[in-house]
Design brief:
This protein has eight helices and 18 strands. The chain is of the alpha+beta class.
Length: about 450
């Protein structure tokens, strides 16, 4: 075996071997991949189906808010007489004895609208506890306003006026009539609004309540307002449209089909042209690399000169057998970098293993997995026990028989046992026997 063949990378050989052994599964996987791509492509491009989308047909919104103001009626060094103070945190009772509370309502529509707005103002006097529950309550009407056919963007306004000193007097009269003062006394201007009409071609009806709370004190009073009205309404409908998919589903399905088709064609072509199955030499290379990796600790690389290859040449069936011989003889296994053979030299004989012998071995496929079996080499078959081959070699003392068969002079085993010669001491005992390097 040449150095180039011995040292060639084996990852591609292993990959081809896996493809060769699992070819059916590879084909099945590619077919399933193609079917998956075809199914996704059908649902995306041929029959995408429909999806329901909610569409906003029209919108409208309404807004309502309260405000307050008081007019200065008495001359003073701070405010001008007749000046109107709006949304002040505190009003002076003597300077501005009347409070005007105002409620404004408006709406917007995406199309058309016509609303009737009716607002009633009520003065509510009551006494409440800390939780806001009433001990008593008295209401008085403050009038109201109504607007018919209010269009989008128009404003309906209602104003109610409360005289603060009269309010204080009324509260005191109620408490006097009750004979006691309990809880916290407060007064509210309440605006109750009813809205009815048609907006964007649809009939609408709404009710709202806004409150101005008055807190009269000694010489001053303050006002607090509630949260403003701000509501938005939508008119929707369901629209069925053709389902759309993103680029991953649209183009990914086609890519799956192309990959599967390319893989199947490529795999079939590779099988047809014999690219995937391993040749005997390549299978032998896999065996060599596996064995070389398994027994790397016992192997050294170098060159075995011709003069070292003297005496009996014993050919072993596997690298494992040769390593056993090296262990028994306390020698190293030499990987000859020139020939690619593995060799152990010991006392006039040398043991050889070459993966080239594997090429014509009928059990090569099994060897590539297990590393056992029988190999052929230039003579008779040698088993995995390392039994000497029946090739004979002429020596100065007689004939050397590798197989350990009997000769005319007797039999000598590796353990030193010999038989007596039939012809006397002038006959040379032949060496024979079996070598079991694996023991």
């Amino acid at each position: 075996m040449t150095q180039d063949t011995t040292d060639r990378p084996t990852w591609s050989l292993r990959l081809r071997k896996q493809f060769d052994e699992w070819g059916v599964l590879v084909v099945v996987a590619l077919v399933m991949l193609g079917l998956l791509g075809a199914w996704v492509a059908y649902g995306t491009h041929v029959a995408p189906g429909t999806e329901t989308e909610t569409v906003v047909d029209s919108t409208w919104s309404e807004q309502g808010s309260v405000s307050h103001a008081a007019t200065i009626t008495q001359p003073n060094p701070v405010f001008a007489e007749g000046q109107t103070l709006s949304d002040q945190p505190v009003y002076f009772t003597q300077l501005a004895p009347e409070l005007d509370g105002t409620f404004e309502y408006t709406y917007d529509a995406s199309e058309t609208g016509s609303l009737d707005v009716v607002t009633e103002a009520t003065l509510r006097m009551r006494s409440v506890n800390d939780d806001g529950n009433s001990y008593w309550s008295v209401t008085e009407s403050l009038g109201g306003d109504s607007v018919e056919g209010l269009s989008p963007g128009e404003v309906a306004t209602t104003t109610a006026t409360v005289e603060i000193e009269s309010l204080l007097a009324e509260l005191q009269a109620i408490e006097s009539d009750l004979g006691t003062s309990v809880g916290s006394t407060e007064a509210d201007i309440v605006f109750d609004t009813q809205v009815a009409g048609e907006v964007n071609g649809e009939r609408v009806t709404r009710t709202h309540q806004q409150t101005l709370t008055l807190n009269p004190g000694s010489g001053t009073y303050d006002v607090s307002t509630g949260e403003a009205i701000s509501e938005t309404y939508e008119s929707t409908s369901s629209l069925r449209t053709e389902a759309t998919d993103g680029p991953l589903r649209s183009y990914g399905s086609v890519a799956l089909i192309l990959v599967a088709a390319t893989g199947l064609v490529g795999f079939a072509a590779a099988r047809y042209w014999g690219v995937i199955p391993l040749s005997p030499a390549e299978r032998a290379t896999l065996v060599r690399h596996r064995e070389r990796r398994d027994f790397d600790d016992w192997i050294s690389t170098g060159t075995v000169p011709a003069e070292a290859r003297t005496g009996a040449a014993i050919q072993l069936d596997s690298l494992e057998d040769l390593v056993d011989v090296a262990i028994d003889t306390n020698e190293r296994v030499i990987e000859d970098t020139e020939t690619g053979d593995f060799c152990v030299v010991d006392n006039g004989r040398h043991y050889i293993y070459s993966s080239d012998w594997l090429i014509d071995d009928p059990d090569l496929d099994r060897l590539s997995m297990s590393g056992t079996g029988t190999e052929q080499s230039g003579g008779e078959t040698a088993t995995t026990t390392g039994e000497l081959r029946p090739d004979s070699t002429e020596t100065d003392g007689g004939t050397h028989v590798d197989s350990g068969a009997e000769t005319d002079g007797g039999t000598e085993t590796e353990a030193g046992q010999t038989g007596s010669s039939d012809t006397g001491d002038d006959r040379t005992n032949d060496e024979s026997g079996s070598v079991d390097p694996g023991d």
